[in-house]
Amino acid sequence: MPARADFKPAAAARFLHNIILLEAPVGDGKSLKVRVAGQLFQGVVAHPVGGTDYLDILPARYHPGALASVRLMVATPCGLWQLMPVHLKGISRTVEFTAFPLAPGNDGIPLILGFLFPLDGLTLAPPLAGKEISVDTAIEFLF
Length: 143
Prior knowledge:
By secondary structure, the chain is mainly beta. The chain has two helices and seven strands; from the N terminus they run ββααβββββ. The protein has helices spanning about 40, 65-75; strands at about 20-25, 35, 80-90, 90-100, 110-125, 135, 140. Strands 1, 2, 3, 4, 5, 6 and 7 form a seven-stranded antiparallel β-sheet that branches. Strand 3 and strand 4 (about 90-100) form a beta hairpin. The chain is globular. It starts with 18 loop residues before the first strand and ends with a strand. The mean pLDDT is about 95.
């Protein structure tokens, strides 16, 4: 698994707009803290995304599966590719998500480096129940 230090943001400048960097849960941890969110994600919400828990925008019934997937990515190690619906401001769009683990740094926390790519086609979004953005479970999923 690549070390966190192997990821050089300057070398990936043209991709930074689409990147999300998450803290993988350690031990019995039950969160996916956002370290960095590119403008693709940050630009659709009014609040700062860094420091929030990604699970807050995923329905609770999917939290155990999301945490298990991230743990598997770190333990195996392996990458993940999925298509997932993203709902915001009255519209839904399918987003392609590709992610890879980065080995823990000095703080002992492994990271997940993800790349989000919105696909063509918009549909009406379901009600968001007081949220600006919501993601749904994957409609296609591969490790």
